[in-house]
Amino acid sequence: MTAAIADTQTETPTRAIAALALAAMVSGMALRVTDALLPRLASDFSISLGQAAQVVTAYAVAYGLAQLGFGPLGDRFGKYRVIAWACAGSAVTSLLCALAVGPHSLMAARLLAGASAGAVIPLSMAWIGDAVPYANRQPVLARFLTGQITGFAVGMWGGGYAAEHLDWRAPFFAIAALFAVASVVLHTLRRRGLTDLTQPPRQQVLRHMVGEFAGVLAKPWARAVLMTVFLEGALVFGPFVFVPAHLHDRFELPLSTVGGLMMAYAAGGLVFAFNARWLVQRLGERKLVQWGAITLALAFLLLAFGPWWSLAAPACAIVGVGFYMLHNTLQTQATQMASERRGSAVATFAACLFLGQSVGVAISAVLVEMLGTAWVLALGAMLLPVVAWQFNRWRDRLL
User: Fold this and answer.
1) What is the SS3 assignment for 202?
2) CB 83 within 8 A of CB 23
3) Integer distance in angstroms from the first to the last C-alpha of the chain?
4) What is the pLDDT of residues 15-61, one digit of tens each?
5) What is the number of domains present in the chain?
6) Could you tell me if 361 and 238 are in contact, meaning their C-beta atoms sit under 8 angstroms apart?
7) Is residue 1 in a domain?
8) 66: domain range?
9) Structure pTM?
10) Distances in Å between the alpha carbon of 133 and those of 94, 127, 136?
11) Is residue 3 domain-resident?
């Protein structure tokens, strides 16, 4: 079945993975586009920054919870097929975001958008896990994620540019069109038979879903990976969402400039992606986790207290490198922690990441009102190395 496919696959399906990277790019844009838009949304809707951040929380909650359905559906009906249809649905929900008339309708549309986009990244990772042997998987996953990383950059810049020069709806129209293109490409490759992998026998849906998730959670190592990625999502993206507002308020920078500075995060992620094979061989998974967390902590402190705005770009680049050192290692473990039900395992992993992000953003929004953005970043910096240390303890005991 699919668990054995990776052991017999000899060639990397390049075109199929490139199409998944395109879908991941659009998904990355949709995820990060609102970060630099938050001050504009707060101003246009006459609400606080913390209230505006609820559009981020809504997307992340829906994205995370949707994994609970998409993982088993991908295992049952075919991961590539589900991704292609999810992109079509995301084109519609992104259009609804563009047509929102107020904060409540925008939040509802972002909730739907998060739910529809939830299939793209985790099922793509699971499909790659089926198609690529474990020995080659981490560098291939890193190259696939260049699509998502590029999407992060374009989304951050596009959100900032629209906040300063356009209507805030403009980037959502663009994202809707790109999701439609991605859906067409994915469906075309699937009809040509370039994405076919053996599927498990079909079962009754609800019983299959319950059995799949129970099987994942029964494994102690899977529980350790899932707890770590939940905390990672909370401690990285909870504070990071407020970096554009932090730079805008502290240095009085235009939001378009802030969006440009934030693109350095994606540049740092690309640095890791293109050097992933060398870094994995040189450091190994344990040190990648340890030094990734330390790198993130230092970058967050630089963003929080750096005296010059010009330090923001290198700090964001360092965040990108550190995050992907840590996260790519967790992703690789996620594709292997329950290989016999890989779609459900990776979907659960993604659900924990985005539920962690939603919790982190919600808590950070409260703390921003009380302490300010700088101290929220500092709190993330203090806790991330602790999470990495605990993960490596679990790794030593359970693997």
Assistant:
1) coil
2) yes
3) 25
4) 888 888 899 999 889 888 888 788 888 888 888 877 787 787 788 78
5) 1
6) yes
7) no
8) 10-398
9) 0.69
10) 35, 11, 6
11) no
